[in-house]
Amino acid sequence: MKIKKVIRRACMVSLFVTAFLVTITSISNISFADVRMWVDYEPVHTEKTFTQLKHRQSSLQKKDLNYLEPKKMYISSDEIEGPKTLEEAANLDKYPTSQVVATGYTAGVESTGKSPDHPEYGITFSGVQVKRDLYSTIAADLNVYPIGTILFIPGYGYGVVADKGSAITGNKIDLYFHTVEDVYSQWGKKQLDVHLIELGDGTLTEEELEELNETDALQVFRQQITES
C-alpha cells in the first residue's frame, strides 16, 4: 500500500509540474527547450565570462591610455647633445696653429681687376671657381701654404687655398666674400691664429672642393655659412 501511495504522489507531482510548465509556456511564449537551457545552465560559466570581459576591458583601457598619452619626442638643441657651431665640430685642439693677418677679398674689380664680363671672372689661380661655403676658397702665399692647403679660420670657417695675390705674402691670407659690403661688415682685417688641417700638394679641382663641401657630418652647419 505504501508503495502505491508513493507512486500515486509521484504521478500527481509529475502531472502538476507538467501542467505548470504548459501554463508558463503558453502565457510567456517560452518553449520547453528554453526551460531546459535554464535548467542546464552553469553559473560558473557566467563567472568565467565576466572575468574574461573584465580582463578584456582592462586591457583596452591600458591600450587607450598608451594611445592618449604617448611618449613625447622633442627635437631641439636643448635635448640633443652635440656641437652647435662649425668651430665646435671641428675638434681643433689636435691641429697646429700659426698666427696670420687675414683680410677679405671678392671676385670683383676692387680685388682682382676683373669685371663680371671678363672670361676669367671668379676663376682662381688653381682653376676652381671662387666659393663661400663650408669650405671656402682663400688666397695665401703659396710658399707658406701651397694650393689645396686646408685651414680653419675662427669666425670664418674652413678655407682651402686656391688663389694667390701680389700683396699676399708671408703670414697673410685673403678670405673670399661675395661682396665688398660683406668684407667690411663680416670681417675687415684681423690678426688671429689659424689651424692647419691639411697641407696641400699644389693642386685643387672642382670635384675635390665639391666633395669637401658635401661632407655629411657638416651639412647641419652649411646654412650658417652660406647665409652669413
TrEMBL record:
<dbReference type="InterPro" id="IPR051933">
    <property type="entry name" value="Resuscitation_pf_RpfB"/>
</dbReference>
<dbReference type="Pfam" id="PF06725">
    <property type="entry name" value="3D"/>
</dbReference>
<protein>
    <submittedName>
        <fullName>3D domain-containing protein</fullName>
    </submittedName>
</protein>
<keyword id="KW-0732">Signal</keyword>
<dbReference type="InterPro" id="IPR036908">
    <property type="entry name" value="RlpA-like_sf"/>
</dbReference>
<dbReference type="InterPro" id="IPR010611">
    <property type="entry name" value="3D_dom"/>
</dbReference>
<feature type="domain" description="3D">
    <location>
        <begin position="136"/>
        <end position="197"/>
    </location>
</feature>
